[in-house]
Design brief:
The chain is an alpha+beta fold. It has two domains: 2-131, no CATH class; 153-286, no CATH class. Helix content is 64%, strand content 12%. It contains twelve helices and six strands. The chain has helices spanning 35-40, 45-54, 56-69, 75-84, 94-101, 121-131, 133-181, 190-209, 213-219, 233-251, 256-276, 278-286; strands at residues 2-5, 8-14, 19-27, 30-34, 106-109, 116-120. The chain has a six-stranded antiparallel beta sheet with strand order 1-2-3-4-6-5. A hairpin with a 2-residue loop joins strand 1 and strand 2 (8-14). Helix 8 packs parallel to helix 11.
Length: 288
C-alpha cells in the first residue's frame, strides 16, 4: 500500500512475519528510501546497518555505485575503507561513510519532519535484501507497482496540461481577432481594451459553462484559480474549438448576440457527442 504526498511517498510493506512502513522521498529527482524508518521497524535495526556496511561486499557495492553516479566521490577515502573492510576491528556507519566520501547514494537530511538518513533505491534495496531476501522481493514489487501508478498519473496530468496549453494558445488567436475586428480605430485606454477582451473571453465561459467568470468566483470563494482551471478534459477540448470558431465569427463580423447563440449550440452539440461516444469517452477518461 502506498500514499502520495506530493514528491514524498509512504510504503507499507507486510510480509508474513513483519510489517515495515517507510518514506520514499525525491532527492535531486531520484527516489530515496528512509533508512531511519526501515531501521525503526526492527529492534536490531541499528546493529544490522553497521554489520551490513562493514561487510567487504557492501563497501565494494557502495563504492562502485558512487563511481558511476557521483563525480565528487572521494576515491581516496573509499580506498581506505576498501583496505580495512573485513578486518575484525573495522566499523562503518552511514554518517562516517557520508562525511568521508562525500556520498550521494546515502545522504542525511535534517528537519523535524522527513529528516533522517536516506539511501538511493538501488542501495536501499540491497540493504533490504541483507535484512531478508523475502523483504527485498516485497519492497521491490510494491515499489515498482507504485512507480507504474505514478507514471500513469503523471501522464494523465501532462495530457490535461497539454490540452490546457492548447486552449491558451487558441485564446491568443481569439484575442488577436478581437483586437483586429472589435476595437475601433480610435485609440482606447488599455483598461477599456481589457474590458473588451474580458467580455469576449467571458462570452465563451457563458456559452460553455453557463456562467460568467465573475459569477463563478462569487459562487466558489474558497477555490483558487478560475473557472477554466476546474474544467474537465472534455470541456477544455470544446473550449479550444469554441475559441477558433469565435475568431472566425468575428472575422465574419457577426454580432455578439448571434455569436453567443451559435457558440452555445456548438458547445451543447460537441459535449453531447463526446459524452455519447464510448471510444472517445474511454480515451478521455484515461487522460484524467
Amino acid at each position: 500500500m502506498a500514499k502520495n504526498k506530493k514528491t514524498e511517498l509512504s510504503l507499507l510493506i507486510k510480509t508474513e512475519e513483519e510489517t515495515f512502513e517507510f518514506q520514499v522521498k525525491q532527492i535531486a529527482g531520484k527516489d530515496y528510501f528512509s533508512l531511519t524508518d526501515i531501521l525503526k521497524s526492527r529492534e536490531d535495526g541499528e546493529q544490522l546497518i553497521y554489520n551490513w556496511m562493514r561487510n567487504r561486499n557492501t563497501v565494494e557495492y557502495l563504492g562502485t555505485w558512487e563511481k558511476l553516479n557521483n563525480p565528487e566521490f572521494d576515491l581516496q577515502a573509499f580506498g581506505e575503507f576498501q583496505r580495512q573492510a573485513g578486518l575484525n576491528n573495522f566499523t562503518l556507519s552511514p554518517k562516517k561513510w557520508i562525511d568521508a566520501t562525500k556520498s550521494i547514494g546515502i545522504v542525511s537530511k535534517s528537519g523535524r519532519y522527513g529528516g533522517g538518513t536516506y539511501a538511493h533505491a538501488d542501495i536501499a534495496l540491497e540493504f533490504c535484501g541483507y535484512m531478508s531476501p523475502v523483504l527485498r522481493l516485497y519492497v521491490n514489487t510494491e515499489f515498482q507497482r507504485l512507480k507504474e501508478e505514478e507514471t500513469l498519473r503523471l501522464a494523465g496530468e501532462q495530457d490535461w496540461n497539454l490540452k490546457r496549453l492548447f486552449s491558451k494558445i487558441n485564446y491568443h488567436i481569439h484575442t488577436d481577432a478581437v483586437k483586429n475586428y472589435l476595437i475601433p480605430p480610435r485609440l482606447l485606454q488599455e483598461q477599456q481594451k481589457g474590458i473588451i477582451y474580458a467580455s469576449e473571453a467571458d462570452m465563451l465561459n457563458v456559452a460553455l459553462f453557463g456562467i460568467s467568470a465573475k459569477d463563478w468566483r462569487l459562487s466558489n470563494p474558497d477555490l483558487k484559480g478560475n473557472i477554466r482551471d476546474f474544467a474537465s478534459t472534455e470541456q477544455l477540448l470544446v473550449l479550444a474549438n469554441l475559441e477558433n470558431l469565435n475568431a472566425e465569427y468575428i472575422h465574419l463580423r457577426l454580432s455578439k448576440d448571434e455569436r453567443l447563440a451559435r457558440l452555445n449550440e456548438v458547445a451543447i452539440h460537441q459535449m453531447q457527442l463526446l459524452l455519447q461516444m464510448p471510444n472517445i469517452k474511454k480515451a478521455l477518461d484515461k487522460g484524467k
